[in-house]
UniProtKB/TrEMBL annotation:
Enzyme class: oxidoreductase
Ranges for domain Flavodoxin-like fold: 2-196
Pfam families: Flavodoxin_2
Organism annotation: Flavobacterium pectinovorum
InterPro entries: Flavodoxin_fold (IPR003680), Flavoprotein-like_sf (IPR029039), FMN-dep_NADH:Q_OxRdtase_AzoR1 (IPR050104), NADH:quinone_OxRdtase_FMN_depd (IPR023048)
Superkingdom classification of source: Bacteria
Transmembrane segments: none
Entry cofactors: FMN
Protein encoded by which gene: azoR
Keywords: Flavoprotein, FMN, NAD, Oxidoreductase
Self-association and partners: Homodimer.
Protein name, entry field: FMN dependent NADH:quinone oxidoreductase
Gene Ontology molecular-function annotations: electron transfer activity; FMN binding; oxidoreductase activity, acting on NAD(P)H as acceptor; oxidoreductase activity, acting on NAD(P)H, quinone or similar compound as acceptor
Amino acid sequence: MKHILHLISSIQGKESYSIKLGHAIIEKIQEKYPGTTLEELNLVDIQIPHLNPAVLRTFFIPKEQLSEEEKESIRFSDQAVKQLLAADIIVIGAPLYNFTIHSSLKAWIDHITRAGITFGYGENGPVGKVTGKKVYVAMSSGGIFSEGHNKDNDFVVPYLKAFLGFLGMTDLTAFRAEGLKVPEVKEHAMEKAINSIYID
Ligand SMILES: Cc1cc2nc3c(=O)[nH]c(=O)nc-3n(C[C@H](O)[C@H](O)[C@H](O)COP(=O)(O)O)c2cc1C
């Protein structure tokens, strides 16, 4: 039985295309793997704090030496890492805002990036420890970034692929609802995205 972690980072609630696309991906996963369980984490609703000096310092103190205050400061990070490690499949809703991912998704990434836990250092440099996961990205954007004149500004999927790969999540497939603000494209953009979904 598989377990899915669905990360939501849209600020558009019921109108969100990345949430709809994420749900369409989850539906297809559940068709393929009946009995799959789902945990949904709305990163916008929970208002993850930015990384700050105290949290960063605490990341590097051995667990048994932490004060109660320090333990509390990394409670969210510990919980987020636990949720991530418990998942077989991670579905990431990645709406494009101002050329990149929403700050809530970046904040989540900052909190799950823990030396000694989610990555380490080997003889040849950093080694990702979050292995054996499948990642699906549900990206949504007003413009078209997978091809054409905006391709040079395609930062969301390449960034997620590079960084999650650094942590060991090298098996990533992205589906895009794109051109949602392009007059001649927007009408069919969502349908096209849903039809492009395949579960491997
Ligand atoms: C604050 C904000 C910034 C945006 N910036 C961009 C942008 O830089 N490029 C673009 O193509 N679309 C941009 N859009 C359009 C979104 O990509 C589009 O609304 C998409 O549906 C967002 O995903 P969501 O529906 O899941 O929230 C922006 C939308 C908002 C609300």
